[in-house]
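anyone seen this seq b4? input:
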Amino acid sequence: MTSLSSTFSQHLDIASTQLETILSQPLDEFLDSPKLKQELDSLDINLLKETLPTAGAVLAKELPPFYNWLKNELAVKRVPDSPDHTTKWVIGFVNNQKSLTNLVELHRPVPRAALEASVPRLVETFAEVKDQHIREEWQKAVAALCLVLVVAAREQDRLI
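predicted toks r here
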């Protein structure tokens, strides 16, 4: 399985040396950073909106085994019962209805180690999408959202 840093390097325009700096930033600083703005602005929102049915189908198929893995292998206590939660959130983000701070708050209970271990697998849920451009755009979008979660989790660990 791909590592956390290689997942971010592969799907986002972030060098591994720059990634360590990003991951050590306070969340508020990262949320206001030009780098995050650049990553989010580089997403092809029109393509993501057009291909929401594709993403929904992928998530409906791939998330139940992912959730079982989180629960059984990583011992994450609060795991959604169905893929609807994640699918609705991703759609809400793409449609500008959900905020990144809301995403962070929803994931605060997830232990950092489990969160970081799950990122490569979550990003790879789109690996079977046949159209390369659509696959890469969804992987990039999910990686960007996960990067925010990892920055938040690392900050939370530093504060404990």
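The mean pLDDT is 89. DSSP finds ten helices and no strands in the chain. kinda curious what u guys think
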